[in-house]
């Protein structure tokens, strides 16, 4: 039997909203959490993410970041598998039909948007911008009026597309009071946004995707170097001078059905920021949203994205993961970039969403960029739609 340890949550801080018993679950890595007892709007009150315990964090690309602390946390070995993350009886996942998916941008519109980004590169407005589209499909009748089972979908993805930063979180809306928006996110993210441990911080941006390593291009390598430099500059804003370094550049990582180019940036946080109540405001102000899914310069790229993308990205391209606050206020955290991510909201009833995109530079070919978005989406959308795929 896999090792498991129950870690009781600390009591909520004065004035915190208590969660309704039994509501809320999340799983990331070896952590399985149940029973939400506290919610923090991290965007508005980052200094409130201080209560000792384990928190799940979900941020949208548009900047709304929320965290939930859980009363019961079980630590399991990875050998426990995805089913260990789902206590109780679970029904099999039933996803949309494979032909039910529609896109916020069709191929013609996406290729036109690529040309618009290239125009902005030519005029000097940006060097690179990440251009995305959102896929959506209706869920079958069993989920009408109720939340779909995030753990069931996570199990399907774990079996068919294992990912280093896979996880899921489902917190019902208003679980900790009327201001709690809740969250329903299932991710198979391959990309590390931020890892914090002690005074160390690490980010590992992905830029460059192809079916095989031989398909990676000079454009992919140039784009990766550009975004790695952006991430390095982001971290320099919160790290001690001279401590930010690129520890790995242009590594090829193999993932199911494709390869990525990955670089790793590390640094040592300013000592004034290492305690929980002082960390998240400056760190998110410096690094959010992730550079690999926005562009360079980041502010200009965000403006271009807002002009060209017809719908919000939501949790896609945001952040999702866990934060652990110690009794001494020390922080450990691991947040993924919210790519390869499905999400659902009660506002839309039975609609499941998934995002896909590509980084656009002057060297981009519109047809090739569309094909890259198809490659990134194909396997995961097929799995969510009931396909069985060999690893």
UniProtKB/TrEMBL annotation:
Q: Where does the UniProt annotation place the signal sequence?
A: none
Q: Which GO terms describe its biological process?
A: L-tryptophan biosynthetic process
Q: Name one GO molecular function term.
A: 4-amino-4-deoxychorismate synthase activity
Q: Where is the Chorismate-utilising enzyme C-terminal domain?
A: 107-376
Span list, region Disordered: 1-22
Q: Which domain of life is it from?
A: Bacteria
Q: Which Pfam families match?
A: Chorismate_bind (PF00425)
Q: Where is the composition biased (Low complexity)?
A: 1-19
Give the matching InterPro entries.
ADC_synthase, Anth_synth_I-like, Chorismate_C
The identity of this protein, by name, is Para-aminobenzoate synthetase component 1
Q: What is the lineage of its organism?
A: Bacteria, Bacillati, Actinomycetota, Actinomycetes, Micrococcales
């Amino acid at each position: 039997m896999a090792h498991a340890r129950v870690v009781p949550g600390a009591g909520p801080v004065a004035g915190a909203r208590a969660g309704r018993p039994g509501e809320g679950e999340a799983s990331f890595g070896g952590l399985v959490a149940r029973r939400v007892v506290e919610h923090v709007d991290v965007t508005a009150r980052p200094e409130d993410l201080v209560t000792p315990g384990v928190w799940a964090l979900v941020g949208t690309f548009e900047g709304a970041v929320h965290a939930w602390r859980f009363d019961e946390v079980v630590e399991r070995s990875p050998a426990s598998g995805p089913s260990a993350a789902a206590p109780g009886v679970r029904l099999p996942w039933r996803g949309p039909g494979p032909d039910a998916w529609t896109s916020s941008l069709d191929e013609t519109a996406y290729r036109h948007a690529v040309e618009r980004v290239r125009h902005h590169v030519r005029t000097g407005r940006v060097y690179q911008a990440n251009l995305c589209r959102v896929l959506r499909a209706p869920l079958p009748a069993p989920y009408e009026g109720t939340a779909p089972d995030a753990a069931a979908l996570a199990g399907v993805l774990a079996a068919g597309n294992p990912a280093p930063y896979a996880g899921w979180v489902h917190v019902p809306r208003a679980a900790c009071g009327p201001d709690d928006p809740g969250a329903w996110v299932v991710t198979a993210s391959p990309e590390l946004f931020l890892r914090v441990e002690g005074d160390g911080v690490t980010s590992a941006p992905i830029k460059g995707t192809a079916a095989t390593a031989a398909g990676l291009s000079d454009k992919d390598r140039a784009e990766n170097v550009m975004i790695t430099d952006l991430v390095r500059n982001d971290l320099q804003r919160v790290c001690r001078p001279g401590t930010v370094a690129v520890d790995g550049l242009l590594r090829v990582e193999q993932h199911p059905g494709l390869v990525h180019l990955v670089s790793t940036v590390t640094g040592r946080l300013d000592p004034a920021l290492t305690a929980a109540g002082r960390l998240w405001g400056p760190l998110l102000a410096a690094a959010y949203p992730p550079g690999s899914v926005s562009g360079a310069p980041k502010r200009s790229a965000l403006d271009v994205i807002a002009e060209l993308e017809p719908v919000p990205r939501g949790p896609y391209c945001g952040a999702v993961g866990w934060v652990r606050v110690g009794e001494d206020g020390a922080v450990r955290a691991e947040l993924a970039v919210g790519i390869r991510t499905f999400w659902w909201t009660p506002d839309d009833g039975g609609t499941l969403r998934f995002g896909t995109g590509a980084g656009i530079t002057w060297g981009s070919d519109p047809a090739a960029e569309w094909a890259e978005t198809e490659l990134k989406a194909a396997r995961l959308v097929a799995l969510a739609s009931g396909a069985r795929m060999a690893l």
